[in-house]
Write a structure and sequence with these properties.
Blueprint (H helix, E strand, L loop, with lengths): L30 E3 L2 E3 L39 H9 L9 H126 L5 H115 L4 H92 L2 E7 L15 E2 L10 E6 L2 E6 L2 E3 L5 H16 L3 E8 L5 H5 L11 H16 L4 E13 L2 E4 L7 H8 L9 E3 L5 E3 L5 E3 L2 H14 L2 E2 L7 E2 L2 E12 L4 E11 L6 H4 L4 H25 L10 H5 L1 H4 L4 E8 L6 H15 L10 E2 L11
Parallel strand pairs: 3-7, 3-18, 8-17, 8-18
Antiparallel strand pairs: 1-2, 4-5, 5-6, 9-10, 9-13, 9-16, 11-12, 14-15, 16-17, 17-19
């Protein structure tokens, strides 16, 4: 009769035969026949039906060979292995051949047993790996499901927060509507009280009317004797009637206002009903969202609990199976024991067989239960697959968004490339326009009349032509009745503001950032507004001059160009030419003694002007300061203004007695294109050009005036030589002209401001200034060169 059992492996060491067998449960039945495995190995998806095995028999009985083809099917268990290990060699003392044969048979049996155990162990290892992989995949899927549920929970929390905000706003609106409703009810109560008061007044008036009727009857009875009293009663009656009609009108108006209040109340109630319905719908939406969130959380918890329960039930079924198998093995051992020791009757053997069949039925029912648990596990896996599909859809959406982002990045890169090309094209057009306008341009500016200016009988000496050709470019000067017309690139009247002036030169300042040398200087007599044009009033933003405005534009533009890869470095210096001597206005106060010593003939710093082959100007020992912001430059301008030489003359109380030269060196590097530019911005405030007779200078002022007139005369000689295109231009006759040689000699873009005073007493000096400016405007010099390179060099610049 067949039976289902589970074999256990032998002890780990054959030498320790009396030790207990390792308590390792086995869930597969094996049988050995003709030297090979007969049975199946579980794949982890459920326990398959066991193969039928023969009744156990003693492997040593009848001299059976376990490895032969006639031995039948033999199962190795604890008793069989112990019998093999305890088997002794039998035979005669000197029958060596028989002992050798017995030993050979025993060795074959032991080899077959070892092979069976090795294959069994190999099957257990494979099954353990498969179970481990299955468990890892299930845990991974559970983790992904938890992440998806967490993301869904975050989305639901975001929706709940939005709904809460909407609920709060609706609560506020509801509170507002409630307050309006209370106000309307209060107004209605007041109207009702007014109506009650009006009704009471009407009743009182009706009573008075009745009294008046009674008085009228009494008056009619005494009409014959009291004619005058009757007339007064008639007048009183008419007054009461008028008063009654007025009260009736008041009651009608009160009724109309009451109807209007009732209408407003109805509208408010309707609005309130609508808001309550909206609020209820939002509450329902919020409740549904909460219910869906709770349902999702419950589903998650249910899935986790279901997986845990399935694992627990699976483990419990395995333990029950192992326990039943152990029981079956115990019963089988008892059957063998009974057969070998006592040889009980067939009836007892049948009863044990019945018990064995009952145990087999129990095992089959447990197998069905395992299949049921596997089906539940399959459904759980399907749910996890659905979660994987939703995660896959989310991933597809993410990839789509990533693709859109990449497309936008490509478009942004193309736009940046177009911006760079447009910037290069703008620079090219900008410089072409400035070259077409002329390299030395002349602007004229007339300051307003001051209270100290004397306007004579002849009136204004400055006028502006209104023709289309000369509008904004022409100026007429009237002297002793004769008109002198002049035309320049731009003429600013006394109404022009500092901003209007700067707008015209802003493109020229931009050229300094593009790598050109730019020079702007102011010319004119003392008191004509040169310093105001160049420096302005720093304490007032609207009255700032060209120097601070130009520097603000340069710093702002350099910061905006940083997005295109440009990095700029700025260096500033300020000097003045006083009595044909160069003075450093940024020198430290401690070194001021050197300057005084140098002026007195002692040994001091030697400020020597030098020009290199590239047109750069270098002044030895001059202080050069690195600047990074407009605040630093403003501090330097303030320091230079305090150090500049000024004095009092008949033309002006604060007259500039020197030529001020502010220089800003600009070094730019583009990290993306490796392009370099080197520009220079020179802003110059010349001293007053009035004649000696007009200034009335004596002593030191006389010496200063002579030095100023000499340098300006040398400037005139240079301009005239350039206008006539002479071979020799006397730049070295003055330190001012020698310093401005690159600006006047064709290596720079130069602009001159000629400043005029509208004072009739200064018309002679104004005429000289305009004639000099006209001569400058007629000069033609070479094309300026832009200093650029594409080599990576040191960012520090030489002066110029």
């Amino acid at each position: 009769m067949t039976s289902r059992n589970q074999n256990k492996p032998p002890p780990r060491s054959p030498l320790n035969r009396n030790n207990a067998v390792d308590d390792i449960p086995l869930d597969k039945r094996r049988k050995i026949g003709t030297g090979r495995m007969v049975g199946t190995v579980s794949s982890g998806r459920g326990r398959q039906a066991f193969a039928a095995v023969n009744n156990r028999q003693d492997p040593t009985a009848n001299g059976g060979d376990l490895g032969g083809s006639d031995c039948g099917t033999v199962e190795f268990n604890k008793e069989v292995v112990e019998a093999l290990l305890n088997e002794k060699i039998k035979g005669k003392k000197f029958d060596h051949k028989g002992k050798v044969d017995q030993m050979t048979d025993l060795i074959k049996k032991l080899r077959l047993c070892i092979k069976w155990f090795q294959e069994l162990e190999k099957g257990h290892i494979e099954e353990q790996e498969k179970l481990k992989n299955s468990l890892e995949s299930l845990e991974k899927k559970c983790t992904e499901t938890e992440v998806a549920m967490k993301n869904k929970e975050e989305e639901l929390n975001a929706i709940i927060s939005e709904l809460r905000m909407s609920n709060a706003s609706l609560q506020e609106n509801l509170a507002k509507q409630e307050s309006e409703k209370l106000d309307a009810i209060e107004c209605h109560r007041r109207e009702k009280e007014a109506r009650d008061a009006a009704e009471k007044l009407q009743c009182r008036l009706s009573e008075e009317l009745e009294k008046a009727e009674q008085e009228k009857l009494s008056a009619n009875q005494r009409v014959t004797s009291l004619d005058d009293m009757y007339k007064r009663s008639q007048e009183y009656n008419i007054g009461l009637q008028q008063y009654n009609s007025k009260l009736q009108e008041d009651v009608a108006s009160a009724n109309e206002s009451l109807k209007r209040v009732e209408t407003e109340k109805t509208a408010i109630l309707t609005n309130l009903t609508t808001l309550r319905g909206h609020y209820n719908s939002l509450q329902e939406q919020l409740a549904s969202c909460r219910a869906s969130q709770e349902e999702a959380v419950k589903q998650k918890e249910a899935l986790v609990k279901e997986v845990g329960c399935l694992r627990g039930e699976l483990q419990q079924v395995r333990e029950d199976r192992d326990r039943q198998l152990t029981h079956v093995q115990t019963l089988s051992a008892e059957i063998l024991k009974y057969k070998e020791s006592t040889g009980k009757s067939v009836a007892e053997l049948d009863s044990l067989t019945i018990k064995s069949n009952a145990l087999e039925e129990t095992c089959s029912s447990q197998t069905k239960q395992i299949l049921l648990l596997q089906s539940q596990l399959t459904s759980a896996n399907e749910k996890l697959k659905m979660s994987d599909l939703s995660a896959l859809e989310t991933r597809v959406g993410f990839e789509e968004q990533k693709r859109v982002i990449l497309e936008l990045q490509d478009r942004l890169a193309d736009a940046e490339h177009k911006i760079l090309d447009g910037e290069k094209y703008r620079k090219k057009l900008h410089n072409t326009i400035l070259e077409l306008k002329g390299n030395i341009r002349v602007f004229c500016r007339v300051r307003p009349l001051l209270p100290d200016d004397g306007v004579g009988i002849e009136g204004s000496v400055v006028s502006y032509p209104t023709s289309a050709e000369s509008l904004g470019r022409g100026i007429d000067l009237i002297q002793t009745g004769q008109k002198y017309p002049f035309t320049f690139d731009k003429v600013f009247s006394h109404e022009a503001s500092q901003q209007d002036v700067f707008v015209e030169i802003s493109q020229l300042v931009q050229s300094a950032l593009d790598g050109y040398k730019v020079c702007i200087f102011a010319y004119g007599q003392t008191g004509s507004g040169k310093t105001y044009t160049m420096m302005g009033a720093p304490e007032s933003p609207e009255q700032k001059g060209l120097i601070p405005r130009s520097l603000e534009q340069i710093f702002q533009t350099s910061q905006s160009l940083s997005a295109q890869g440009w990095k700029y470095k700025m260096q500033a210096s300020m000097l003045e030419i006083y009595n044909e001597a160069i003075r450093d206005l940024l020198v430290n106060r401690s070194s001021g003694l050197d300057m005084i010593r140098a002026e007195n003939g002692g040994v001091g710093k030697q400020y020597t002007i030098k020009h290199d082959s590239n047109g750069n100007t270098n002044v030895s020992d001059l202080t050069i300061v690195d600047v990074c912001s407009i605040r630093e430059v403003s501090s330097l301008l303030h320091q230079a203004a305090q150090s500049r030489s000024v004095g009092k003359t008949q033309m002006n109380d604060q007259s500039s007695r020197s030529h001020l030269v502010f220089t800003l060196r600009i070094s730019g590097v583009n990290e993306s294109t490796e392009q370099q530019v080197q520009g220079v911005l020179n802003l110059i405030d010349l001293a007053g050009s009035e004649r000696l007779s007009r200034s009335g200078a004596t002593g030191d002022r006389l010496k200063e005036t002579q030095a100023i007139n000499k340098s300006l005369s040398c400037l005139s000689d240079v301009i005239f030589a350039l206008a006539k295109k002479e071979d020799h231009v006397p730049f070295r006759n003055s330190k001012l002209t020698y310093l401005l040689q690159p600006c006047l000699g064709g290596d720079s873009k130069t602009l001159m401001f000629v400043n005029l005073s509208p004072d009739p007493s200064s018309v002679g000096e104004s005429l000289c200034s305009l004639r000099f400016a006209a001569r400058v405007n007629s000069c033609e010099i070479g094309i300026p060169r832009r200093q650029t390179s594409t080599r990576i060099v040191d960012s520090r610049l030489s002066y110029g």
